[in-house]
Amino acid sequence: MTRPIDLRRTAHLCIDLQNGFVEKGAPVEVPAARDIIPTVNAISTAIRKSEAINIFVQFTLGSPDVQSWSNWFARMPESQRPQQERFLERGSHYHQLWPDLAVMPADLKVEKSRFSAFIPGASDLNELLKRRGLNTLIITGTLTNVCCESTARDAMQMNYRVIFIEDATAARTPAEHNAAIANMRSTFGEVLTAKHLIANLHAS
Asked: Fewer CB atoms inside 10 Å of the end CB: C or N, the chain?
């Protein structure tokens, strides 16, 4: 049984559900990400009816990141590098949140420039959470095994309570998704289904 969730100190982090990952034919297409959109929207709706908040996190890369994160870009094939360096630039089509993702004016948005939103200098997420006195994070989005897992691992080690939603996160393959879920369950956080989470939100 999951312990009660203090909704006044909770944020739902919806990670990287952007055109560049969700759209058919996108540079880093995650087909399963399209399937989780209704589930993520249901969680966001339940959050809005509570005292918790939604934060939509967008992967954002620009020219400075190509230099400061050169080892990652160097791993890419030469033919792919120009596109990979630019497809998540602020204002580009692929940078935008997926149009079927239900984002409301009261929801917050945060940009990050690394897989983990908690890497120093990658975003202002930690500062935002601390200012609001938040200590519990519900994680949804994509990719399960990259940005969602990286953010969750760092959050747990920074003493945030992590609640990872297994049917509201998506990876490119079931094997990658399941391996990340196993890591979460064994070490880094609580793993719940969306149905279980929403029931807990209503009970808290």
From this structure: N
